[in-house]
Amino acid sequence: MTKNKRAVVFVRLKDGVLDPQGVTIGKALQQMGYDDFVSVRTGKFFELEINDSNGDIEKKIDEVCSKLLANPVIERYTVEKD
Amino acid sequence: MTKNKRAVVFVRLKDGVLDPQGVTIGKALQQMGYDDFVSVRTGKFFELEINDSNGDIEKKIDEVCSKLLANPVIERYTVEKD
User: Fold this and answer.
1) I want to staple A49 with a disulfide (CB 3.0 to 4.6 A). Which of A42, A67, A78, B38 is the partner?
2) Are B77 and B64 in contact (CB under 8 A)?
3) Would you state the pLDDT for residue A52?
4) B34 shares contact with chain A (CB less than 8 Å)
5) pLDDT digits (tens, 9 = 90+) for A23-68
6) Are B53 and A36 an interchain contact pair (Cβ–Cβ within 8 Å)?
7) Other beta carbons within 10 Å of A48
8) Where are the domains of chain A?
9) CATH for A5-81 (3.90.550.10, 3.40.50.800, 3.30.1280.10, 3.40.50.150)
10) How far apart are CA B62 and CA B18, in angstroms?
11) Which of A19-23, A67-71, A75-79, B51-55 has the lowest mean pLDDT?
């Protein structure tokens, strides 16, 4: 039996794409008195548990990222594997 | 002049808390034929740019996490600093 593997996909907005959520959090921090925080950018990540029985999992993760997990027009992604 | 520092806060749902977004993505992957993916858990992260002029930044990051960035009832967070 193959042990399940784990991969984490990090999705961020591309540089130059406006991040309204980050801007709002930044403003909230200022209003709360935390003026050491210069800027905030937000992102999301997905922890995937993988049963790699057929191999070729790198290619599949890449496909899944560009088809479902990230929007390649405005987002970029990185993959970290255990 | 102090150089700006960078910290990343990762926020995940606590173990045992249902992650409907992750479940939905998992089902979508199955329907798309990617049946190697056993489970998906989602999370978010915040890249903070910090002008640490007064020091004591660890404490401030911790405060900001529990007050604004994470909901301590259902979420846990980790901080990574450069």
Assistant:
1) B38
2) no
3) 81
4) yes
5) 999 999 999 999 999 999 999 999 999 998 777 899 999 999 999 9
6) yes
7) 30
8) 5-81
9) 3.30.1280.10
10) 25
11) B51-55
Pairing status of strand B75-81 against strand A5-13:
unpaired
pLDDT (0 to 100) of residue B2: 60
Q: Which residue type does B67 have? A: K
- What one-character-per-residue DSSP string does chain A give? -PPPEEEEEEEEEPTTS--HHHHHHHHHHHHTT-TTEEEEEEEEEEEEEE--SSS-HHHHHHHHIIIII--TTTEEEEEEE-
d(CA B36, CA B20): 20
**Contact of A43 with A11, CB cutoff 8 Å:** yes
* DSSP H or E segment with residue B67: none
Across the interface, of B46, B52, B63, the residue whose CB is closest to A42 is B46
Residue A44 amino acid letter: K
B36 touches chain A (CB under 8 A): yes
Helix (H) or strand (E) holding B78: strand B75-81
